[in-house]
Description:
The protein is α+β, with helices and mostly antiparallel strands. The chain has four helices and nine strands.
Amino acid sequence: xxxxxxxxxxxxxxxxxxxxxxxxxxxxxxxxxxxxxxxxxxxxxxxxxxxxxxxxxxxxxxxxxxxxxxxxxxxxxxxxxxxxxxxxxxxxxxxxxxxxxxxxxxxxxxxxxxxxxxxxxxxxxxxxxxxxxxxxxxxxxxxxxxxxxxxxxxxxxxxxxxxxxxxxxxxxxxxxxxxxxxxxxxxxxxxxxxxx
Length: 196
């Protein structure tokens, strides 16, 4: 089932998410719905707060980046093969010299800006079977993980922009929170009345 993606302005996006246990209600259905929602919106990552749930879970599938012919063949292959679920994740270390990449977010449609992040990240997490892992990732995979991890910490990519950039996009953000935007996927806007 495709879930509505929560738009900028909803308080759930600014809340630090809570850990979950393996007896989380209807976990398998939620996981399937989140993947379906992400693919429907042509995303490469989706965090639970983006579907209105303040829990520490996000998923990543970087395969759309594998079609970027500007990337080296080995990186294209790595991106094409990367699909993971991260539960109760904690970033242990971010390393290297920060680099800029033009980021967007399904909760903030039609806003893209360069964001600086470190190229390498070490993270511990549970997979969809609640098995523990500690792994190090780099490049675009690390970037997507950092972006989605920020969501479970209540941080949006626009929070990392300069105050000048934030002022320049203020009007567009206001329109998104009011639902004055055209998107080709389901969204829930902060001022929308919930259907009974």
